[in-house]
Structures are given as C-alpha cells and as structure tokens.
C-alpha cells in the first residue's frame, strides 16, 4: 500500500516509547526471561507484559516456551533487534555526555577488541571519513514527507513515568524519540527550518504543539532561541548520530515499495551516506557484540 506511514513513522511508532528501547537493550545484554527484565528495570508487571507482547508482534523479540507446567517463556532477540545496537550505542553516549540529570551517572562503554573505554565516532560507511551533520545532505525520497513521517499514535505516558521509570535512564532522548512531533521538529532543525511559523507550516502541527516542543528542547539545551529563530546547540548537533542510526534501521526493516523516505548524501565522497560507528581509541569499526559497559 502506497501513501501510508513511511519507514520513519513506523520506526517512531515502534520505538517511541519509554520502555521499549530499554527492554531491547536489556535483551541485547543477555536478558531473556521475565525475571531478568524485572530484576534489571523498574517496570511494572502490566507494562512489561504489554511491551513483551508488542515486541514479539514487531519481530524485535521471539517468544519461546521453555516450561509448560506452569507455562513460562523466554524472549531471545531477533536480527531486527540486534541491528538496533548502533542507535542504542549512540543514545547511551549522548545521554552519558550531555545529560546531567541522571541520578546515577551512566557507565562508560568498553570496546572488547582493544580493551579501552571509548566513545563511538560516526563515519561514512562508503569512505570511512568521520562525519557530522554538516557533512551530510538530506532530501526526501519517493516515500518521504513530513505528514507520512509522523506516526498517528505512540504509547501514552502516564504521569511521572518519564522521570521515575524508563525515562530516568534516557530522559532527554525520550523527549525526542518518545514524542511523535518532537522527532519531526528536531529533524526539521537539522535541515535548517528554524522559525516558528515555518515549523508549523512544514510539520502541519497545531501551534500549541510546536510551542510546547520548542520550549522543551530549549529548556533541555538542545535548541537555543535568538531573534525569533531556533537553532541547534552543540548538544543538539551531537544528537545527529542517533538520528541517522535510527533512520538507517528504519529504512532497512520497513522498506517502502515506493522507495526510501529520506535520501542522505555524503558531501565528502558524493555517495549515499550510510552510518558506521568506530572506536575512537583503536579506530576499528564497532560491532555490537564487542561493546560492553565498563
């Protein structure tokens, strides 16, 4: 079916939730059974049960019964969830570096191949050159538009959940990914749309919605306002690896028959930009299986 939600909207509809990314992260770290998740996360039984069902439906986890009396199941990861590691690694690095509100600081990441604590460096897969948002040109692809990139719904936050539950670990990331307008607004900022009226026109969101998201991003230091324009701060620009890794995952797993939603081109080599993460200590391209917490 053409004309419906594109890969970006489907990705946000799946991952735009306080708990989903954390459950997947724990699964990638080895959690498979219900008790593993409750031991690792401050999640209620009802929320965990609901998220596990949705993750199985979305092919991010597999349900495998290992005991029949009583019935007990484990939830191993799938290729779809394993390939989320670049996005999760980029989120961890951004929150660890830029978000000061964590009650307990997030630990560093260690690269098993070289044994060093590291920070991931974004590069162009085609030419292996370190890349920032200034090095990449974005344009809509055949299935791309603001309207088609916004999911109709995301999981509804309950009062206090963002700060007391999963959001306590990824608080500011979830103000972007966990909000159907927040992600679109930040992408718009990256492509240079910086005035309130232009954001409202391009995104098609109500004025109050745009005003609230701009106020949130300004308060969190992701955007700053000057002369009626909302520009990315250094902290906001540092979110770029999360965006491109999320986009790469979305377009791999939710291909549209019309073609990609977004086309990225690397200025340096002129080829399509596909992100790759390398260790800043040994300069070797990272693999998810070789990353651990320090």
From TrEMBL:
<dbReference type="InterPro" id="IPR036388">
    <property type="entry name" value="WH-like_DNA-bd_sf"/>
</dbReference>
<keyword id="KW-0804">Transcription</keyword>
<keyword id="KW-0805">Transcription regulation</keyword>
<feature type="domain" description="HTH hxlR-type">
    <location>
        <begin position="166"/>
        <end position="258"/>
    </location>
</feature>
<dbReference type="InterPro" id="IPR002577">
    <property type="entry name" value="HTH_HxlR"/>
</dbReference>
<keyword id="KW-0238">DNA-binding</keyword>
<feature type="domain" description="HTH hxlR-type">
    <location>
        <begin position="4"/>
        <end position="103"/>
    </location>
</feature>
<dbReference type="InterPro" id="IPR036390">
    <property type="entry name" value="WH_DNA-bd_sf"/>
</dbReference>
<protein>
    <submittedName>
        <fullName>HTH-type transcriptional activator HxlR</fullName>
    </submittedName>
</protein>
<dbReference type="Pfam" id="PF01638">
    <property type="entry name" value="HxlR"/>
</dbReference>
<dbReference type="GO" id="GO:0003677">
    <property type="term" value="F:DNA binding"/>
</dbReference>
<feature type="region of interest" description="Disordered">
    <location>
        <begin position="141"/>
        <end position="160"/>
    </location>
</feature>
């Amino acid at each position: 079916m053409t004309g419906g939600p594109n890969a970006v909207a489907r990705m946000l509809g799946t991952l735009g939730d306080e708990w989903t990314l954390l459950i997947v992260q724990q699964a990638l770290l080895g959690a498979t059974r219900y008790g593993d998740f409750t031991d690792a996360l401050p999640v209620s039984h009802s929320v965990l049960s609901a998220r596990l069902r949705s993750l199985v439906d979305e092919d991010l986890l597999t349900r495998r019964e290992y005991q029949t009396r009583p019935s007990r199941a484990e939830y191993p990861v799938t290729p779809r969830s394993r390939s989320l590691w670049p996005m999760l690694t980029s989120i961890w690095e951004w929150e660890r570096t830029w978000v000061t509100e964590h009650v307990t600081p997030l630990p560093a990441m260690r690269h098993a191949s070289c044994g060093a604590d590291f920070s991931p460096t974004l590069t162009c897969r085609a030419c292996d050159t370190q890349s920032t948002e200034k090095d990449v040109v974005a344009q809509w692809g055949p299935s791309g538009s603001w309207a088609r990139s916004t999911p109709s719904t995301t999981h509804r936050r309950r009062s206090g959940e963002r700060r007391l539950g999963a959001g306590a670990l990824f608080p500011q990331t979830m103000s972007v990914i966990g909000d159907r307008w927040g992600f679109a607004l930040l992408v718009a900022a990256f492509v240079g749309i910086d005035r309130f009226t232009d954001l409202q026109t391009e995104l098609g969101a109500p004025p109050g919605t745009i005003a609230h998201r701009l106020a949130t991003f300004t308060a969190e230091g992701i955007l700053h306002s000057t002369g009626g324009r909302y520009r990315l701060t250094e902290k906001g620009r540092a979110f770029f690896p999360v965006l491109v890794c999320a986009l790469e995952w979305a377009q791999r797993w939710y291909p549209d028959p019309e073609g990609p939603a977004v086309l990225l081109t690397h200025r340096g080599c002129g080829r399509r930009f596909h992100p790759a993460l390398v260790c800043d200590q040994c300069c070797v391209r990272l693999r998810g299986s070789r990353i651990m917490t320090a």
